[in-house]
Design brief:
This protein is an alpha/beta fold. The chain folds into two domains: 278 residues, no CATH class; 274 residues, pyruvate-formate lyase- activating enzyme. The protein has 28 helices and 24 strands. The chain has a six-stranded mixed sheet with strand order 2-1-5-6-7-8, with helices on both faces. α1 links the parallel β1 and β2. α4 packs across α25 and α20 packs parallel to α22. The longest helix is centred in the N-terminal third of the chain and has 19 residues. It comes from Micromonospora inaquosa. Keywords: Iron, Iron-sulfur, Metal-binding, S-adenosyl-L-methionine. One of its GO terms (cellular component) is cytosol. This is Radical SAM protein.
């Protein structure tokens, strides 16, 4: 091997800005161990964000907003765009800079009032930035809310240049001024783009198109979980390279050895046709399809994260991902369909030795305080031996992982985990009903889960719960068992909650529908990349609305991913490390009315949505109804819609608006009560508690910043 191939690896928008992802570092570290030169790793997600508020990009944004037009849209698309423009904020780069400063500050970050204000500042900026694409396309800051045809996986939409250009328009200055000139001048022979999540795909496709124009001779490759899903879920084989037309090759499944063989082939001037995980573009002719290869973990070195732009991430600490196992040792759950699985719910189970894990984390902990085990699950005995050696060697770092709530976890063993640096674990408890757990083939019992949660909590390890309702044939009462389980044990879990069951094509449920009482299994209409299936099952459908209402409010977190309050985010682990299992109380403290608040100034934390055009307002109401955490359609038509700064929409009655309008300017609760002297104090107090609890008003003056 010559080791002379110059490569660039790109991680595209739109994804978590709080830490670097590990996929590219694993590829690069493996290739370097085989004698190849280091690749240039580009986190385009975080770079594009920071470029968006530079003076030149901000000037561009203001010009674009001043002449914003949706004349090229028609019908429903135009109405939805008009509706999503309602209530969107003006971009404020100064507030954004303050917000970034708080999120990167090792003191202010842990003051939840400062944290909330900072997150809402970032979300507000992203809302304004997204307006130049499809208004409303960014949700919760870094989640894409694309046109429906993109979200369902329509090949026509994913190959529509006009549509892709519009979705990518918010990042146009970054592409034109930074990324493409950098690549064009870089002299790269190989450029790879890795997409982990579905919402990165439209950006990866557009970047590939720009790269192909600027660097026509480069060997362009794509990989990552999302690229594998396109290959796995395409309803016709030809769809894969219709969508991924600009790439010379894609890597399906695990990519370390495949990427290295691509570098070897380019260095030798040949095509990388020998690796079973490499799929060449059809323009290179018909290729023999070999069984997929799964990596031997003993040959995968510890990843080197030093090439990532750590000063750019929106966090006060470094947080790295580490994968010492692949696949799942249980590998039986009937709903699961993860990775490049062939005959099981996940890919084959493999696990590094404990000695290798210790050697790896010893190196990683020199670089980062927080290490998250990014795995499907860790085996209990392995975790215990790992924790014992961490304590024996005196290693000082913090870690978390996803585990199964086995009865194995006694009080003593949980205490050992905590002493080894474990601050939080994530668990898929799935359901609080035994019949449903048996249908899922989970191998657990609710009472056993409760005992393990108790042991973890006693050790001050945060337990983040993940479950869902709506599994086929689940009755109303069985779904409410899950709600009751979490509601009756608030002191045993910190964050998480209950989602909704979704059927995917590779799940055992989809392969054996009769066994689970479902009929008429079918793709979503119009989808070509079939990630999700629809089906008929009257029992769960009948209970859906009532169960959704019961689930509303279970999660004590206030923000969607990637922010604090969501499961398995860097920010969540930072707060667990600082506050332990008391983190729920920290999040709740600013959402309650305190005795001292009579003399505290409050300010409206958002604005009411304009109702001048009834058709547009009604479209907005329906769009936002579908996005609520509670029952779909729960924004009544006769209410006033208030858009909180973070984009959440609330339907308020006329009397609530009279109260809330008082806080257009900073006002104390005592003065607000004086102005509403006709209202009983007890009634007014209930209103203040509701407004504060829902953060419709916020305390105007944040706690003083520390002296530096």
């Amino acid at each position: 091997m010559s080791g002379t191939v110059k490569a660039a690896l790109i991680y595209p928008p739109l994804t978590d800005p709080t830490s670097g992802y590990h996929s590219l570092n694993y590829l690069d570290s493996y290739a370097r161990a085989q004698g190849h030169r280091p690749a240039e790793i580009i986190d385009a997600n975080i770079e594009a964000f920071h470029h968006s508020y530079t003076p030149s990009a901000y000037d561009w944004l203001r010009r674009e907003l001043s002449r914003l037009s949706i004349d090229d849209l028609s019908g429903t698309d135009a109405l939805m765009a008009q509706a999503n423009q309602l209530g969107l904020p003006d971009p404020d780069p100064e507030r954004l800079r303050r917000s970034i400063g708080v999120l990167q500050d090792p003191t202010l970050f842990y003051d939840y009032r400062h944290y909330q204000d900072a997150v809402e500042g970032v979300i507000s900026w992203m809302d304004a930035l997204g307006t130049v694409g499809f208004p409303g396309q960014f949700h919760a800051g870094f989640r894409l809310h694309p046109p429906p045809m993109i979200s369902i996986g329509s090949v026509a939409a994913l190959t529509d240049e006009t549509l892709l250009a519009r979705l990518n328009r918010p990042f146009l200055p970054y592409y034109e001024d930074v990324l493409i000139p950098r690549l064009a001048a870089g002299g790269h022979q190989v450029i790879g783009i890795s997409a982990t999540y579905q919402w990165q795909l439209p950006f990866a496709l557009w970047i590939a198109r720009l790269v192909r124009r600027a660097c026509p001779d480069v060997f362009l490759i794509a990989g990552g979980t999302e690229i594998s899903d396109v290959w796995k879920c395409a309803s016709k084989p030809e769809y894969v390279f219709q969508v991924l037309a600009d790439f010379d090759a894609i890597v399906v499944g695990e990519g370390e050895s495949a990427y290295t063989e691509i570098l070897d082939a380019v260095a030798a001037g040949t095509l990388p046709a020998g690796h079973p995980n490499v799929r060449l573009h059809p323009k290179y002719g018909r290729q023999r399809q070999l069984p997929l290869r799964y990596e031997r973990l003993a040959q995968v070195p510890v990843p080197d994260f030093s090439g990532l732009p750590w000063d750019l991430y929106l966090s006060p600490e470094r947080f790295v991902y580490y994968s010492p196992t692949r696949g799942c040792y249980w590998n039986k759950c009937t709903f699961c369909d993860y990775g490049l699985n062939t005959d099981g719910p996940t890919s084959p189970w493999r696990q590094d030795t404990v000695s290798t894990m210790i050697a790896d984390v010893t190196e990683l902990s020199k670089f980062a305080k927080f290490i998250y085990f990014s795995v499907d699950v860790l085996a209990p005995a392995t975790i215990l031996r790992f924790a014992e050696q961490v304590v024996e060697r005196g290693l000082d770092f913090r870690w978390g992982a996803e585990i199964r709530l086995e009865k194995y976890w006694s009080d003593e063993r949980c205490e050992l985990l905590r002493r080894s640096g474990c601050v939080a674990i994530s668990v898929g408890f799935e359901s609080g009903n035994q019949r449903i757990l048996d249908l899922i083939d989970k191998g657990t019992k609710p009472e056993q889960v409760r005992r393990t949660m108790t042991a973890m909590t006693k050790a001050n390890i945060g337990v983040q719960m993940m479950g869902f309702t709506g599994f086929p044939t689940e009755t109303r009462e069985e779904a409410l068992d899950s709600v009751t389980f979490l509601r009756d044990n608030p002191d045993l879990w910190t964050l998480g909650g209950l989602g909704d069951f979704m059927l995917t094509p590779g799940a055992i449920v989809a392969k054996e529908p009769d066994r689970f009482g479902i009929t008429n299994v079918r793709p979503v209409e119009g989808s070509d990349i079939v990630r999700m299936l629809k089906y008929d099952e009257p029992v769960t459908e009948a209970a859906q609305a009532e169960v959704a209402q019961a689930k509303a409010g279970l999660n004590p977190g206030h923000y969607h991913r990637p922010w604090l309050g969501s499961t398995d985010t860097p920010h969540t682990f930072f707060y667990h490390d600082r506050y332990g299992t008391a983190v729920r109380g920290v999040l709740a403290n600013d959402r309650v009315r305190h005795d001292t608040d009579d003399q505290t100034e409050f300010l409206a934390n958002g604005a009411f949505v304009d109702r001048d055009d009834e058709q547009v307002w009604e479209a907005y109401r329906r769009i936002r109804s579908d996005e609520q955490e509670g029952v779909p359609g729960d924004l009544p038509a006769d209410r006033h819609l208030f858009r909180r700064v973070d984009g959440q929409v609330f339907a308020l009655n006329r009397s609530s608006r009279l109260f809330l309008d008082l806080f257009h300017a900073p006002l104390t609760l005592a003065e607000a009560q004086r102005r509403l002297w006709i209202v009983e104090p007890t009634v007014a107090d209930r209103v203040w508690r509701t407004f504060i609890g829902q953060r419709l008003i916020r305390r105007h003056r944040l706690p003083a910043e520390p002296v530096r």
